[in-house]
Amino acid sequence: TKRIGILTSGGDCPGLNAAIRGVARAAYDRMEGVEIIGIADGYSGLIKGDYRVMDKSEFSGILTLGGTILGTARTPFKDMRKIGDDNVDKVSSMMKNYEKMGLDCLCTLGGNGTHKTANLLSEEGLNVIGLPKTIDNDLWGTDVTFGFHTAVDIATDVIDRVHTTAASHGRVMVVELMGNKAGWLTIYSGVAGGADVVVIPEIPYDRETVIEAVRKRAERGKAFSIVAIAEGAVRNDEVDLKRKEIREKRSAEGFTSVSARLAHAIEATTGIETRVVVPGHIQRGGSPSAYDRVLSTKFGVQAAELIYQKKFGYTVALQKGRLTENKLSDVAGKTKLVTLDSDIVRAARNIGICLGD
Ligand code: F6P
């Protein structure tokens, strides 16, 4: 028998179930006598030994389902070597449970944190295969992660809806989108939704530049403006501060978020009524888009192919539109951020979107 363990770790996103289904179906199809072991709640289930042999039927009817049927958790990488209740560190527990489950390999579906741990386990000698999931799209070595495009679709819909009400009232709407370090979601949905200003963590912003863009539109007769800002956007005069310090400084000023503070400044300076919209976890909820269903399926099938070939220590990826794989050791610890010379930044600038710098 081939025993394949599978877990989903980190923040959930649409497409996880489609990817799980892809791995399972292709594995059953490609290899004789496969057994899939579902591990609950990411690495925490592997640490605790919370797992079960799954029935083939469980992979049916989940293609369009949001979230993850396995459950997920954030298990901080820095805690991995810490001693747990049972007096062993978490890595040793995971190694022991891998043995106990009799696994031939472990499939880990997740983002940057997940891949760091996957690489650690691979370096410890386990057979690990990764799949790139995150709405942030910030995993190194792949053009795109699954979950990203669904989040872009949702965020674009939010911006579209905010647009009509902003136009009706002649207001500024500041839409805060997810992304602490990476601005992919904000810049893609900002461009797709026709935002007037897009502020991302990779390009520190000047408050005056943003306000000036809003004012200029008002002078041209456009009474409303849409500002799309990533939750992790940083002001130019605060780039030297740690994130925690920025948060503390902001809350001392009476603001709980980057969007609330910017909205206040816009309204106070321009006199234009300004509202804040924070779609939050709606961006990660619900059914995957058609694009993500296909991408997740392709990634799942590719992962099963690597298992079949016994090519462990890799994570699947898409490069220039083709499926491929990267070494876990090459991906772990890196982040793929929006670069100033990227096509999307160039496109945004060339159509006159203000990037706040
Ligand atoms: O990594 C995905 C993400 O949605 C980020 O965009 C966001 O900053 C974070 O997760 C939110 O974390 P939590 O899952 O703890 O709400």
Automatic annotation (TrEMBL):
The protein's enzyme class: transferase
CC per GO annotation: 6-phosphofructokinase complex
Cofactor(s), by name: Mg(2+)
Binding-site residues, Mg(2+): N112
A Pfam match: PFK
GO BP annotations listed: canonical glycolysis; fructose 1,6-bisphosphate metabolic process; fructose 6-phosphate metabolic process
Reaction catalysis annotation: beta-D-fructose 6-phosphate + ATP = beta-D-fructose 1,6-bisphosphate + ADP + H(+)
Site (Important for substrate specificity): G113
EC number(s) from the headed UniProt entry: 2.7.1.11
Residues covered by the Phosphofructokinase domain: 3-307
One MF annotation (Gene Ontology) recorded for this entry: AMP binding
Main location (coarse class): cytoplasm
Entry keywords, A to Z: ATP-binding, Cytoplasm, Glycolysis, Kinase, Magnesium, Metal-binding, Nucleotide-binding, Transferase
Binding-site residues, substrate: T134, I135, D136, R171, E231, R275, H281, I282, Q283, R284
Localization per record: Cytoplasm
Highest taxon of source: Bacteria
Entry's family note: Belongs to the phosphofructokinase type A (PFKA) family. Mixed-substrate PFK group III subfamily.
Stated name of the protein: ATP-dependent 6-phosphofructokinase
Lineage of producing organism: Bacteria, Bacillati, Bacillota, Clostridia, Christensenellales
